[in-house]
């Protein structure tokens, strides 16, 4: 038991010698920090230099985003804009979809008027007449038959400008047949 008492006494003396005389100052500094008002840190926003616009001087040169063979042979040649679609008219609901996404599910004849029933990808059925627009290429219904509708699309190519192509949306196969020449 004497040894145990001696060990405890030595440990106590050793711990007493490890005391730091500056612990009181550390406690005071920590107390000041705790008393300081909190809140979000101050955010410093760097100053952005004023933007100086540059003039683009290469509009007469070949577009770097088009292949060479798609560029006009004569850059001064202008297109006939008579086939350009009317960008001011309101968009019809089925113009948001590609023709491949639309299905002709039926046609109706009401007197002299033909109506096409077309299903959109969400399953909603729309009734359209001749003159209505559908598809993303400014397609307009030219003719409605008992098993198909004929659509005139207007497409723009860098080489030919605006041109019209006819596409048929059929009832039996629910597919499109392109009756116009290829887009090449």
UniProtKB/TrEMBL annotation:
Lineage: superkingdom: Bacteria
One Pfam family hit: PilP
Region Disordered, annotated ranges: 72-91
Record InterPro entries: PilP
Protein name from the UniProt record: Pilus assembly protein PilP
Species in which this protein is naturally found: Vreelandella zhuhanensis
Lineage, highest ranks first: Bacteria, Pseudomonadati, Pseudomonadota, Gammaproteobacteria, Oceanospirillales
């Amino acid at each position: 038991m004497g040894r145990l008492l001696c060990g405890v006494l030595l440990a106590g003396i050793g711990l007493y010698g490890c005391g730091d005389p500056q612990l009181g100052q550390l406690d005071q500094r920590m107390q000041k920090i705790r008393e300081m008002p909190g809140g979000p840190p101050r955010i410093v926003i760097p100053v952005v230099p004023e933007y100086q616009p540059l003039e683009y001087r290469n509009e007469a040169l070949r577009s770097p985003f088009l292949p060479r063979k798609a560029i006009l042979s004569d850059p001064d040649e202008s297109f006939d804009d008579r086939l350009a679609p009317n960008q001011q008219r309101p968009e019809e609901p089925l113009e948001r979809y590609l023709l491949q996404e639309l299905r002709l599910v039926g046609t109706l004849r009401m007197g002299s008027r033909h109506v096409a029933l077309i299903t959109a990808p969400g399953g909603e059925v729309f009734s359209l007449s001749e003159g209505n627009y559908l598809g993303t290429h400014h397609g307009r219904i030219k003719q409605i038959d008992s098993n198909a509708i004929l659509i005139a699309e207007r497409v723009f190519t860098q080489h030919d400008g605006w041109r019209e192509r006819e596409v048929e949306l059929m009832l039996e196969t629910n597919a499109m047949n392109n009756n116009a020449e290829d887009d090449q």
